[in-house]
Amino acid sequence: MAPETRRSSKTSPEYELIYWPGIPGRGEVVRLLFEDAGVAYKDTAKASRAVETVLAHSAPESAGDAANPPTFAPPVLRHGGLVINQLPNILLYLAPRLGLGPASGNEVYHLNELALTILDGLLAEVHETHHPIATDQYYDEQKAEAKKRAKAFREARLPKFLGYLQRVLDGERSGGGGWLYGEFTYVDLVLFQCFDGTKYAFPKTVEKLKKTGKYDGVFRLYDAVRERPNIKAYLESDRRIDYADGIWRHYPELEEDE
Ligand SMILES: N[C@@H](CCC(=O)N[C@@H](CS)C(=O)NCC(=O)O)C(=O)O
Fold it and tell me: In what residue span(s) does the GST C-terminal domain sit (predicted)?
């Protein structure tokens, strides 16, 4: 699974990622694929007029074009004449092109299943802990519900998702090599980013779960991704964006019981 292009071999990147500036968010998962593969990409979050670019792809007036329906929300990927959104869809498109997953066969659907589950549990449900009622209202307007939702996430949902991921790692298909699906694939990057964000949001909870020893494979995978040379270099670079008021937020009170 060799990637199509290496970073150094391109002057003008063929791929363009359109995402909000200032937060890692869903865009970060896409970035990690490019970074691990060493494939150049234009990142509009780091360019001027970043917000305008996002709005051009998500505002109610945005109409798409003759080849592409309007996109609903970022992240958006542009590749040649193709414009697509929905993170798992972008991952499906990129994985075979970047050497991070197969192009066809049953494996495509297994990998997508794993990616969707990780995105449900460690991205969407984390977001719902601080925005359980309305995404377009402030956290302060839904604090009481957030507290209840966060408690349920910490006590039931997070252990359930980590337990599932550990079962995947323990399963025969994983192959015992430490990656979710035999050889290293994009779903290992999805898990790394979503678990990193979850650790940021719920540090005490994750530390407590680590101590149980029930999810050691998940923690080992996380550490192993961190040590991949291109990922390590990226994480140490100023291209990596700090967590802020995005999907993965840290509100200490959401880790406290009454
Ligand atoms: N299911 C979509 C969700 C996209 C989404 O919620 N994007 C956020 C940023 S991470 C956004 O700006 N949403 C605007 C909206 O939903 O109105 C995906 O996976 O890409």
Answer: 112-254
pLDDT tens-digit readout, 136-185: 999 999 999 999 999 999 999 999 999 999 999 999 999 999 999 999 99
Structure tokens at 69: 């329906």
Pairwise CA distance, residues 194 & 192, whole Å: 6
What are the φ/ψ torsions at residue 15 (nearest 5 degrees)?
-100, 140
Tell me how far the alpha carbon of residue 131 lies from the centroid of ligand 1, in angstroms. Answer: 13
| Atom 4 of ligand 1, nearest CA residue | 73
The domain segmentation of the chain, as residue ranges, is 7-97, 106-255
Give the other-Cβ count within 10 Å of 136's Cβ. 5
159 token code pair: 């252990």
Q: Can you read off the two tokens belonging to residue 100?
A: 């991070």
Please state, in angstroms and rounded to a whole number, the distance separating the CA atoms of residues 41 and 16. 6
CATH topology of domain 106-255: Glutathione S-transferase Yfyf (Class Pi); Chain A, domain 2 (1.20.1050)
DSSP E strands in the chain: the ranges are 15-18, 41-43, 76-79, 82-85
**pLDDT for residue 9 is more than 80:** no
Q: Which CATH class is domain 7-97?
A: alpha beta
Report the interhelical angle of 216-226 vs 186-201 (nearest 10°): 110
- 17, 18, 72, best to mutate for ligand 1 pocket (most atoms within 8 Å of CB): 72
Q: In ligand 1, which atom is closest to the CA atom of 19? A: 9
